[in-house]
């Protein structure tokens, strides 16, 4: 399969992309077909690390085309990268779109040989959530929408809903996304805890902080546990990179994009990625505050969103479990968990473990964004390096203590108090 795919692959530029669209009915029809195709406009907007992304418009419609390259785009061909990630992205989008169509863009076309996907254009005024958080925009429906997305995609791809045979077939399918998983293993669970050429931080201000991470034995033991869980635990079909740069928003709409890291992994990795990136956005606010806006009200909104995201997710997830408790799910068979009290105890234990997993993974994601290879614009856009380092240090210290003490937290409200205790505004 890989050899065949290699033979049919060619990177498209604007001219060859137009020819490709005209020859592909599933794409041509979305742009109106016929004479509409004579007025096509193409804009390359791939600001990520890995792919070409084109917005294609005609007089009758618009689509997005995404093509994976056989290397990491931001580094070049010195860092090879499997193009098969495009297949897993399209597969995950389609599966999550089936389970949560309100918050997942539709895939119109996928060409495995070309590693190319055509999908719905998420039109303005949608912007990347991270950019909205930097600008201080409130999204009143964000917690509700993201809790819907996480509850539906995670519950319906787990053994709480599916039988073991179907589950293992899907796990086997997504196991082949191993290269993307190995990238996560390296940049999230390994590099920040050792000397690596890929690591960077706000030097010299955080030199000692980065060294302290590399010398913290307790932290390393906890991270080893999380890494094992990430590699071994095929709990649900996760997005695999659910940070605030993978979500597009308006005040009324939330769309989750870019699941090329999708595989069957621990649910807490998705939940933690979302919550951890909101916590990073919280700590970055002091660096964006000015005389016109001290950002204090906005910081309260971020904390409220973190709190509501977990509490709503937990509520919706357990509601789905109760609704489908007599179904095919093989994790908790109805003739064993056959009384309300027992099922309630099982659910409480399950959700407590998931909460602690989410806190651990979220903290690990925060740490890697401060002393690892890929940082976040929330913090990077703070021009004053000493001010940026101050925000980063608060986030780093918060993340380390949550990661090491995650099992001591019983509620998200306790986590919110903990986050505030590291904030010196």
TrEMBL record:
- InterPro entries, per database record: Aminoglycoside_PTrfase, Kinase-like_dom_sf, Methylthioribose_kinase
Where does the signal sequence lie? none
Single GO term (MF): ATP binding
Which keywords are on file for this protein? ATP-binding, Kinase, Nucleotide-binding, Transferase
* Location of the Aminoglycoside phosphotransferase domain: 137-281
| Enzyme Commission number, as recorded | 2.7.1.100
User: What top-level class of enzyme does the UniProt entry assign?
Assistant: transferase
What the entry lists under Pfam families is as follows: APH
Regarding protein family, the annotation reads: Belongs to the methylthioribose kinase family.
Give the PANTHER family listed for this entry. Answer: METHYLTHIORIBOSE KINASE
Q: How does it assemble?
A: Homodimer.
Q: What is this protein called?
A: S-methyl-5-thioribose kinase
């Amino acid at each position: 399969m890989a050899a065949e795919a290699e033979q049919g692959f060619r990177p498209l530029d604007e001219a060859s992309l137009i020819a490709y669209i005209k020859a592909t009915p599933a794409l041509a029809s979305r742009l109106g077909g016929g004479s509409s195709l004579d007025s096509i406009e193409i804009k390359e907007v791939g600001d990520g690390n890995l792919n070409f992304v084109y917005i294609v418009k005609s007089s009758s419609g618009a689509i997005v085309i995404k093509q994976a390259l056989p290397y990491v785009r931001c580094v070049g061909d010195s860092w090879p990268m499997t193009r098969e990630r495009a297949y897993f992205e399209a597969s995950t989008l389609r599966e999550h779109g089936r389970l949560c169509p309100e918050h997942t863009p539709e895939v119109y076309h996928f060409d495995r040989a070309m590693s190319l996907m055509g999908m719905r254009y998420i039109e303005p005024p949608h912007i990347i959530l991270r950019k909205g958080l930097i600008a201080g925009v409130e999204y009143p429906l964000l917690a509700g929408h993201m809790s819907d997305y996480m509850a539906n995609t995670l519950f319906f791809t787990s053994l709480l809903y599916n039988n073991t045979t179907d589950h293992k077939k899907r796990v086997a399918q997504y196991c082949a996304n191993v290269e993307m998983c190995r990238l996560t293993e390296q940049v999230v669970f390994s590099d920040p805890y050792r000397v690596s050429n890929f690591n960077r931080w706000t030097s010299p201000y955080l030199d000692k902080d980065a060294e302290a991470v590399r010398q913290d034995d307790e932290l390393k033991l906890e991270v080893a546990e999380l890494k094992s869980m990430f590699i071994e635990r095929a709990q649900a079909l996760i997005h695999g990179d659910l940070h605030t740069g993978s979500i597009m928003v308006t005040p009324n709409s939330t769309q989750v994009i870019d699941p090329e890291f999708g595989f069957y992994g621990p649910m807490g990795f998705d939940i933690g990625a979302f919550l951890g990136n909101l916590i990073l956005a919280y700590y970055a606010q002091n660096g964006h505050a000015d005389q016109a806006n001290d950002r204090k009200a906005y910081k309260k909104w971020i904390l409220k969103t973190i709190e509501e995201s977990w509490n709503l997710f937990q509520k919706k997830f357990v509601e789905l479990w109760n609704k489908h408790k007599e179904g095919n799910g093989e994790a908790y068979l109805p003739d064993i968990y056959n009384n309300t009290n027992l099922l309630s105890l099982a659910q409480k234990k399950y959700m407590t473990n998931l909460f602690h997993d989410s806190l651990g993974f979220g903290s690990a994601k925060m740490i890697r964004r401060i002393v690892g290879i890929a940082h976040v614009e929330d913090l990077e856009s703070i021009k004053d390096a000493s001010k940026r380092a101050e925000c980063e240090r608060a986030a780093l210290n918060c993340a380390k203590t949550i990661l090491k003490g995650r099992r001591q937290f019983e509620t998200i409200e306790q986590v919110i108090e903990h986050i505030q205790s590291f904030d010196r505004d």
